[in-house]
Design goal:
about 100 residues; mainly alpha; 2 domains; elongated; LYR motif-containing protein; Fmc1
């Protein structure tokens, strides 16, 4: 049977893969090798397993926060001007044209 440290390590690696933005081929291999070395040095340490579980909980919570933020607040990553236009469109209005915009055309 595998140790709690190994189980926690595997779960953290899976969570990192789920949260990664870049494809696996383009990720920095130094991060993975450093993480593996850290595990190998501390595999018998119970506090390390506890720390790994805390890191796993944090990463999972961060990923879920981003998912929920994207789902329930789709305007969070827009600039203030884009947010105002999107909000006006949502209620069926268009933003008035500024006189400075007419001079540019």
């Amino acid at each position: 049977m595998s140790s709690p440290s190994l189980q926690a390590y595997r779960r953290v690696v899976r969570e990192i893969n789920r949260a990664a933005i870049a494809p696996r081929a383009t990720r920095n291999p130094v991060v993975a090798s450093s993480f593996r070395k850290l595990y190998e040095q501390n595999r018998d340490n119970e506090s390390f397993a506890h720390d790994m579980q805390n890191a796993l909980t944090f990463m999972h919570s961060q990923r879920m926060h981003k998912v929920l933020l994207d789902r329930y607040n789709p305007l969070h990553d827009l600039s203030p001007e884009e947010r105002i236009k999107a909000t006006a469109r949502r209620v069926g209005l268009d933003m008035p044209v500024n006189s400075s915009d007419d001079k540019d055309n």
